[in-house]
């Protein structure tokens, strides 16, 4: 649930603004200053002003660590919502709100001059743009997956390697300009031995997979294939770290 610490009224204000900061769905940060007195939250029978007054009332006299909605929990809320529509819950309402907002924003686009002249591909672009805007409005964000984290880490490592290579090349250039013995310049190491090992491991893994019939043989073949792929990655990394050198 949400504590009083998540709500803050700006010190200088002449409206019904409230600052909200908390971790929402999938632990994604929600941080916005909302003016509940604005037309956006009060038009079409909106109750922005009432929400503002209620939040002030719920937080009054409470410590920062106390719950804002201390008299209700998700189960009670969902049971209340089901009285209005069978199957309605906070999660369903969140999805409905996002869908409704998307539909309204798309309708605005369709009313613009020139919409009818857009090609299907251009309309897809407009749809994707609106979809992103709605995601921001509804605080729908994706957390970074493990695969993405690994990819970003690899990119970061490659950038560090390139920086080191650049620094080394500057040193080599300085050394060459000095007219000193060129034999001291580092050269690219042979990759032939590593490539032979990789090719052999891949061939062995393929042979094991083709012949595997029992579960034990299939497991062994999979392990051999994983090892061969790891050797491929190591060879690729080695080539990358040596790319700036001469043979």
From TrEMBL:
InterPro entries, sorted: DNA_brk_join_enz, TopoI, TopoI_cat_a-hlx-sub_euk, TopoI_cat_a/b-sub_euk, TopoI_cat_euk, TopoI_euk, Topoisomerase_IB
EC id: 5.6.2.1
Gene Ontology MF terms in the entry: DNA binding; DNA topoisomerase type I (single strand cut, ATP-independent) activity
Gene Ontology biological process terms in this record: chromosome segregation; DNA replication; DNA topological change
A GO cellular-component term linked to this record: chromosome
Name recorded for this polypeptide: DNA topoisomerase
Stated family: Belongs to the type IB topoisomerase family.
Reactions catalysed: ATP-independent breakage of single-stranded DNA, followed by passage and rejoining
Protein's organism: Seminavis robusta
Pfam families: Topoisom_I
Top EC class for this record: isomerase
Biased composition (Basic and acidic residues): 210-226
Coiled-coil annotated spans: 145-172
Span list, region Disordered: 206-226
Record keywords, A-Z: Coiled coil, DNA-binding, Isomerase, Topoisomerase
Chain ranges of the DNA topoisomerase I eukaryotic-type domain: 10-247
Keyword Coiled coil (UniProt): yes
């Amino acid at each position: 649930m949400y504590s009083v610490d998540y709500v803050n009224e700006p010190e200088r204000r002449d409206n019904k603004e409230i600052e909200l900061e908390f971790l929402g769905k999938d632990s994604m940060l929600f941080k916005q200053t909302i003016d509940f007195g604005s037309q956006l939250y009060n038009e079409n029978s909106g109750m922005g002003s009432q929400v503002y007054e209620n939040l002030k009332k719920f937080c009054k006299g409470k410590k920062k660590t106390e719950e804002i909605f201390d008299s209700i929990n998700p189960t009670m809320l969902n049971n209340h919502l089901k009285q209005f529509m069978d199957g309605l819950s906070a999660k369903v309402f969140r999805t409905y709100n996002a869908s409704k907002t998307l539909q309204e924003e798309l309708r605005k686009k369709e009313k613009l001059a020139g919409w009818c002249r857009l090609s299907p591909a251009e309309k897809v672009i407009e749809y994707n743009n609106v979809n992103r805007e709605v995601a921001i409005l509804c605080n729908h964000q994706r957390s970074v997956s493990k695969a993405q984290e690994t990819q970003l880490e690899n990119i970061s490592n490659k950038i560090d390697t390139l920086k080191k290579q650049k620094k080394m090349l500057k040193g080599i250039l300085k050394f060459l300009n000095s007219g000193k013995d060129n034999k001291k310049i580092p050269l690219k190491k042979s990759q032939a031995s590593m490539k032979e090992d990789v090719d052999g491991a891949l061939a062995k893994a393929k042979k094991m997979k083709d012949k595997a019939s029992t579960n034990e043989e299939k497991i062994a073949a999979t392990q051999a294939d994983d090892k061969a792929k790891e050797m491929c990655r190591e060879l690729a990394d080695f080539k990358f770290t040596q790319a700036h050198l001469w043979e």
